[in-house]
Amino acid sequence: MLVAALLALGACSQGLDIGALINPAEAQRRGAVEVAVKSAWPGILGEIEVGSGPNLARAMDAAGVPAQDRTARVIQLRGDLGLYEANPAALTTALMLYGG
């Protein structure tokens, strides 16, 4: 019943992260990734463009992106760079997904 109420609340309120309410560790990880992305903005975009850099590595570390996946993930990020240039939250979300 509580889960249904939370899901209904999430549908009515834009930006509410239901996963964070259910899993505090996930909320903490998201916060760390968001800080890593926003504190390096917009320089992290240049690092995506060239394929590496300390800020991008820090954000991927915070997201938990496996080292063996990072080269492929940077290529994917580069393909959507236009989206991330306008929206740091989208970059945060992509990194969270890549980190699992």
What number of domains? 1
Number of strands: 0
Biggest sheet statistics: none
> How much helix is in the residues?
over 70%
Question: What is the mean pLDDT?
Answer: 87
Radius of gyration equals 15 Å
Order of helical and strand elements: HHHHHHHH
User: What separation lies between the terminal Cα atoms?
Assistant: 27 Å
Count up the helices: 8
Strand percentage lies at under 5%
Given helix and strand content, the structural type is mainly alpha
Shape: globular
Low-confidence stretches: none
Describe this structure in words.
The protein is mainly α. The protein has one domain. It is 78% helix and 0% strand. The chain contains eight helices and no strands. It has helices at residues 2-12, 18-22, 24-39, 43-50, 54-63, 70-79, 81-86, 88-99. Helix 3 (24-39) runs antiparallel to helix 5 (54-63) and helix 3 crosses helix 8 (88-99). The longest helix is centred in the N-terminal third of the chain and has 16 residues, at 24-39. It is globular, with a radius of gyration of 15 Å. The two termini are 27 Å apart. The mean pLDDT is 87.
